[in-house]
Write a structure and sequence with these properties.
By secondary structure, the protein is an all-alpha fold. It is about 60% helix and about 0% strand.
């Protein structure tokens, strides 16, 4: 009698596109494991990511807005969930492997630093060899989770995580879906948050963009997803129509100029970045000097041959915004005392 997993694998073979990555064709894991009776390999990867500590910490890590007053601004976790939903819609419409797509999407930002790209910039400057969150995400699932054991994910999921940036080149169609879904998500939800913060107005966006892909967050996301699906249907690549691709690039460039790299006083998303970068730099330099103050699991990594600078970077990049501020205060801000 076949297992439920084998029945699911059979359904994939019968129903998915010829360009989809089938679970039975996975390149596998670095460490051999007994197969699950219920779940395919990519379903197991998705579940491992959802249950890991690094995933839970994303809820307290900055997306764009540092420590905003309000509950409705995106965090790194809500960004991840929005990427996952967009990617799943595209994958399902193209009859790709939705489980693989979801696993990549949920794991793609596990390695992000506290304070978003501001924190990443500092660690990249300080660490020998630099720092990139996509590579750190892979390091987390391969090495850091489960007290140094890693999650032992499939090669396809790790490839998609590593290559999710615009410059990446994923080997699977599902990885390509996540790469473009990440861009669709952050471009639109960052505009939404900036409008809520009264930094931008919808009418500020160039008309040459809105006339092509829409004049609201909702309509743009819907339009971009449909354009990708119809342009990519029955093709061995994830594509946009030329006109839409140009408009999205213009929108992204406009956002970099007017939000991400704009340091005027009105842009409250940027006003605290220098302080945040100072916190990250002070913490990194402190733990490089006082290695013995690292938590035991990180000291064990050094004992097992990992470089001190890398392990300190692991510890700092894994911190949430709140925990980084807490450790900074603990180390550098004096507290009151009294004689008892």
């Amino acid at each position: 009698m076949s297992t439920i997993r084998e029945e699911l694998e059979k359904i994939e073979i019968e129903t998915l596109s010829k360009y989809a990555t089938l679970s039975v064709n996975s390149l596998g894991r670095d460490k051999k494991e007994k197969e699950c009776d219920l779940r395919t390999v990519f379903q197991r990867d998705r579940d491992r990511i959802i249950h890991c500590k690094s995933f839970r910490r994303l809820k307290h890590k900055t997306q764009v807005f540092l420590i905003p007053e309000g509950d409705h601004y995106r965090t790194r976790l809500t960004h991840t969930l929005e990427v996952s939903q967009i990617a799943r819609t595209i994958a399902k419409s193209l009859r790709l492997n939705e489980d693989l797509t979801e696993a990549i999407a949920l794991g793609h930002d596990l390695g992000h630093t506290p304070f978003g790209h501001a924190g990443e910039y500092v660690l990249n400057e300080l660490m020998p060899g630099g720092f990139e969150h996509c590579a750190q995400s892979v390091r987390i699932v391969e090495k850091l989770e489960r007290n140094g054991q890693g999650l032992n994910l499939t090669k396809e999921v790790r490839d998609g995580i590593l290559n999710h940036r615009t410059s990446g080149s994923p080997k699977t169609m599902e990885g390509k879906v996540v790469r473009v879904s990440d861009k669709i998500a952050y471009v639109n939800h960052d505009i939404d948050d900036a409008i809520s913060a009264k930094i931008l107005k919808e009418s500020d966006i160039p008309r040459e963009v809105t006339e092509v892909i829409g004049s609201s967050v909702r309509t743009r996301i819907d339009f971009l997803i449909k354009d990708i699906v119809y342009t990519s249907y029955d093709k061995n690549d994830i594509l946009m129509s030329k006109k839409v691709n140009v408009a999205l690039k213009k929108l992204r460039a406009w956002l970099f100029e007017n939000l991400y790299n704009n340091n005027n006083k009105k842009n409250i998303a940027k006003t605290e970045e220098k302080k945040a970068q100072h916190v990250v730099a002070k913490l990194y330099n402190h733990y490089i000097k006082y290695i013995d103050e690292l938590p035991i699991e990180y000291k064990n990594l050094i004992k097992n041959g990992e470089k001190e600078e890398q392990v300190v970077g692991d510890y700092i990049s894994g911190m949430t915004d709140d925990f980084a501020i807490y450790k900074f205060n603990e180390l550098y801000v004096p507290v009151g005392w009294k004689i008892r």
